[in-house]
Specification:
This protein is an alpha+beta fold and 127 residues long. The protein has two domains: 51 residues, 2,3-Dihydroxybiphenyl 1,2-Dioxygenase, domain 1, CATH 3.10.180.10; 53 residues, 2,3-Dihydroxybiphenyl 1,2-Dioxygenase, domain 1, CATH 3.10.180. The chain contains two helices and nine strands. A hairpin with a 4-residue loop joins strand 3 and strand 4. The longest helix has 13 residues. The protein starts with 5 loop residues before the first strand and ends with a strand.
Length: 127
């Protein structure tokens, strides 16, 4: 068994799609739009077959996203090397994204950094 995809609602659908395509090498399908409900979504596909569905619809509830909370905490992307973690972290920081931690080696042996991106949600970059 495998996870087929992960989905998240976002306020700014196009900006979220552009982030995953520009920084993480995702490939987007064309927008799906249900004209009856005004629901819209994209599937973003990544090299290893993982997929992320980003979705939007009118009148969504948008709670504050603290970094230490129950439920969804982050999406982790393996970028292949420590150098690429460092490079992408630097690019994201220079482009105005908050670096919540790292780059660093964690106590359990991961080399990672955590970026606050996509409407307050964390993206983890790891080897």
């Amino acid at each position: 068994m495998r996870i087929e995809h992960v989905a998240m609602y976002v306020n700014e659908l196009e900006a979220a799609r552009d982030f995953f395509v520009k920084y993480l090498g995702g490939v987007s399908n064309d927008v799906y739009h249900n004209k009856t409900t005004d629901f819209r979504s994209y599937f973003i596909s990544f090299d290893d077959g993982a997929r992320l569905e980003i979705m939007n619809k009118p009148q969504m509830q948008d709670e504050e996203k603290t970094l230490n909370r129950t439920g969804y905490v982050h999406l982790a992307f393996s970028v292949g090397s420590k150098e690429k973690v460092d490079e992408l972290t630097s690019i994201l920081k220079n482009d105005g994204y908050e670096v919540a931690s790292g780059p660093r080696t964690t106590g359990d042996g991961y080399y990672e950094s955590c970026i606050v991106a996509i409407e307050g949600n964390q993206i983890e970059l790891t080897v």
